[in-house]
Queue: 2 jobs
Job 1
Amino acid sequence: MTETRIRTSLQRHQAVTPMDEDEIRRKASQLWQQTGTVMVKPDWVINHLDRQHMQNIAEKLFGKRPT
């Protein structure tokens, strides 16, 4: 289903509805399929070793997250 949006000069003042978890997963899947870019939330990775490996890669590429 395609959503049709009307563009107006007031559009920038419209509140943005946050995405729910299912929508985030769909967008992440589309991103992977279309561009080869991986977006994974650590909570999605069930295996502790895989999650730690993913965190290690992210910290190597982007640095540690602020606490």
Job 2
Amino acid sequence: MSPTFHRGRPAFLGAFEDGVITYWLLIDSGEVWMVRGYEGDGDQQYGLVSSSVAALQKMQSVYMKPRR
């Protein structure tokens, strides 16, 4: 079950920390959102991670680049 987004239809991208943090793509806008907290606990927090999947991938590639 996906969290409720009032800005568009969500598609699941992935999870981190045993599912307490999940990432969602809003299909209509291309925005990527992070949701913190378990579904149904009534305390989920939403945050815009990136304005597009391409921007998120670029950010991750810089972060994951090996350091010399």
